[in-house]
Amino acid sequence: MTRRTLTAAERGDRRFAVLAASPAVLTIGALFLYPLGYAVLLSLYRLNDKMPGATAFIGLENYVQLATDANFHQALGRTFVFCLVTVFGGVALAVGIAALLQNPFRGRNLARVLLLVPWAVPPVVNGIMWKLIFDGSYGAVNAVLEGLGLLDAPIQWLADPQLTMGVLMLSEVWKLTPFLALMTIASMQAIPSNIYRAASIDGAGGWDRFWKVTLPNLRGTLMFLLIVQSMWSIKVFDTIYVLTGGSGGPAEATTTINFLAYLTTFSYLDRGYGAALSITIMAIVIAVTGFWILVLGRRKEKAS
């Protein structure tokens, strides 16, 4: 294959394009590569601001310590459970909402607009809102349940480890599901209507059309949704901070791996070990992303 010789004007356009894009590429590279390189370097040091005299280069010792750290293992387990509920629950709920909003009914456009409201709420405001709703003294949930006669005494939702994790899951699903649903709606609208008409002529009911037509055509969208929701769930921070007052409690019940990295770095001032935690979290996010691409991308290739 012979390469076409560029004209002088085309070479000039190419040079201008490279020159115009260079500032943005250099800025993004500096903002991404410098912190990443600095974090990798820190992770190779014993660096605790409480013991400045003990600072030393220790190589991969922080990563070896992670492998046997019980706190990290427990945080990893909590993160896994949290991701299991928020990723699969959030995506399933988003697909269900999108399927409902695809059907014509009066007020459908208004419903789609209102769907944006939770997504537009800032994460900190979202955390404050759910903290007020589930407050044990004056929260709306206790007031409603007591009003209905279902409770004799108020429940301390944010003082019980299991209930607090439940509130955290609910708040994250409430906030992130609208974005997932809107993406699903946009993808559903791109499915040709003649496929549904052909399926109806063949006698397919509503469930069959959804299972055999809609879902297969959403495979690429589902892969994207699972990837972004997994990333958000692994990196959840704002809501935990607000709900628990920055403690990750009660009894470390909401201390996920990302929050453990924050506590290690900024509360315990162990910057070297905190950096190792952060690099490990990044590796986990990359591994999970690769997993979803491998699973759903491979199936797409087989289907084609």
Q: Could you explain the architecture of this structure?
A:
The protein has helices at 8-42, 61-67, 70-102, 108-114, 116-120, 123-133, 140-147, 161-189, 193-201, 206-217, 219-234, 238-244, 257-267, 271-303; strands spanning 45-46, 56-57. With 304 residues, the chain is mainly alpha-helical. The protein has a two-stranded antiparallel ribbon. α3 (70-102) runs antiparallel to α11. It is flat. The model has no long low-confidence stretch (mean pLDDT 89).
Q: Give the overall shape.
A: flat
Structural category: mainly alpha
| Terminal residue distance | 29 Å
Low-pLDDT stretches are none
Helix content: over 70%
Q: What letter string, H or E per element, gives the SSE order?
A: HEEHHHHHHHHHHHHH
Number of strands: 2
Largest sheet: 2 strands, antiparallel
Q: Give the averaged pLDDT, no decimals.
A: 89
Spatial arrangement of strands, main beta sheet: 1-2
Instruction: Evaluate the radius of gyration.
Output: 25 Å
Report the sheet-strand fraction.
Answer: under 5%
> Number of helix segments?
14
Please specify the SSE layout and strand pairing.
Layout: H1 8-42, E1 45-46, E2 56-57, H2 61-67, H3 70-102, H4 108-114, H5 116-120, H6 123-133, H7 140-147, H8 161-189, H9 193-201, H10 206-217, H11 219-234, H12 238-244, H13 257-267, H14 271-303
Antiparallel strand pairs: 1-2
Helix pairs in contact: 1-14, 3-8, 3-11, 6-12, 8-11, 11-14, 13-14
